[in-house]
Amino acid sequence: MQIIGQFIFVFGVIWLIVACINWIFNKQSWKPVVCKTSPSLSILIPARNEEENIRDLLSDLIRINYPVHEIIVYDDNSADRTVEIVKEFARVRLIEGKEPEKGWLGKNYACHQLALAAQGEKILFLDADVRISDPVIEKILCYLETKSLSLLSVFPQQLFPSTGSRFTIPLMNWILLSLLPLPLIPATHIPSLAAANGQCMLFDAKTYRRHLPHQKFRMNPVEDIRIMQYYKSRQLKTATLLGDPHICCHMYGSWKEAIRGFSKNIFAFFGNSKIAAYMFASLTTIAPFVIFHSHGKTVGMVYLGIILLIRIFFSLASHQSVLQNILFSIPQQFSFWVILLYATIHHKQKKTNMERPEYISYILIVLLLFLSPVHTCPETSYRQQIYQAYLKGDMDTWDYIIKEMEKEELSSVSEKLELLSYYYGYTGYLIGVKEKKGKRDDRKGKSTHQNDIGDRTPERNCLRLQRFFYCL
């Protein structure tokens, strides 16, 4: 027990050091800087059913002193008064969107369309529930320029409209600031050392247009983190800051809403590792009891002091109430466990939605996916998109990705082998569908030679395979 106690105590000290470093780094980063240039800026806002927030944000933006080149809102098929409210602002350009193309998530598609329409030298994506005042725009532009960054992401100060939101929303910054030293993000090109928040992301437009990151991660629900990881993998300089009081966000209004929202991407904070997430939750829950039991009252009180200091540093860095985060530490820890369990259960339910007769085909798909050679080109994200399509049972997207890869000029052997594995996986799925239909037709006394799934048959997919081998 003493060895475990020592292990936990050492990690507690490390977490404290990381939290302290992040507080100092963020404090230094927001010092006034004289900007020598004033690059043209496009502010881009994806919006879907945002009638409660969009007027406030647009009112903020038209009042700022920085000469913004353009403000563009992309309406993602809103069913409320979002469009009518945007039209009230003469300086704001509205793009009335359409249904996303196959293989796209709604917000990623909206951001991509906004970026294609933007004309500024820098492009700033803001969520509709963000509030922003004048100094921030010039500060983040100067920071991007002086540090020669291709991407800067800012975590806005979070607003707490209810007691339930105080139990949940601070968890995001608590996890981030106790695990990841923010100075390492711009100092290294290690993709795992990355953190980003899609609520506020500032890009160099020329670099963005060269890589089109929202298109590359069009099926990824945590595209903000994946984009930053991609930028780092391409040796592009990035940075992450915590917002000052001039940029804030009304993220979730209630405890239940926050639980559902955070459960979608909680594992992304831990490198998509459930084991790491549960280990962190377990350590932070049982640590004080283990320390008191193994090392006595004196060391236990010292460890409680470490926990207290971590809370103070992350609260100061996040511009949150120190007193509230200390008083609500137990409800926040409880909420953390609820988020993890909700995310795990929700993920399992998604997995069990597959039809039983096609189960063998899906096993074949997964084996081919994970046994295929690792993709050596960081410029594509097809492996991640295929995996997301598998989780959702979305074979239309699977077929779409194959067609997209067919259009590209695949140069390396590993890329061609990966496409080959996707062909085989999709063929396995079609075989499963055909077998299932054949058994159903046999029971009804119909011919098994008829096929009602159009062009998507094992035979036609084999012709695609033949063409692929010919191209090799």
Short descriptors:
472 residues; alpha/beta; Spore Coat Polysaccharide Biosynthesis Protein SpsA, Chain A; 2 domains; 58% helix; globular
Spell the H/E element sequence. HEHEHEHEEHEEHHHEHHHEEHHHHHHHHH
CATH class of the largest domain: Alpha Beta
Spatial order of the strands in the main sheet? 3-2-1-4-8-6-9
Strand content bin = 5-15%
Instruction: Give the count of structural domains.
Output: 2
| The CATH topology of the largest domain | Spore Coat Polysaccharide Biosynthesis Protein SpsA, Chain A
Q: Low-confidence spans: pLDDT under 50, at least 5 residues?
A: 351-380, 446-455
Reported CATH architecture of the largest domain: Alpha-Beta Complex
3D shape: globular
| Sheet with most strands | 7 strands, mixed
The CA-CA distance between the termini, in Å, is: 60 Å
The structural class is alpha/beta
- Provide the helix percentage: 55-70%
> CATH homologous superfamily of the largest domain - what is it?
Spore Coat Polysaccharide Biosynthesis Protein SpsA, Chain A
Rg result: 25 Å
How are the elements arranged and paired?
Elements: H1 2-29, E1 41-47, H2 54-63, E2 70-75, H3 82-86, E3 92-96, H4 106-117, E4 122-126, E5 130-132, H5 134-146, E6 151-155, E7 157-158, H6 163-168, H7 170-179, H8 184-187, E8 200-204, H9 205-211, H10 213-216, H11 223-233, E9 238-242, E10 247-249, H12 255-263, H13 274-318, H14 322-327, H15 329-351, H16 359-371, H17 382-392, H18 395-407, H19 413-444, H20 458-471
Parallel strand pairs: 1-2, 1-4, 2-3, 6-9, 7-10
Antiparallel strand pairs: 4-8, 5-10, 6-8
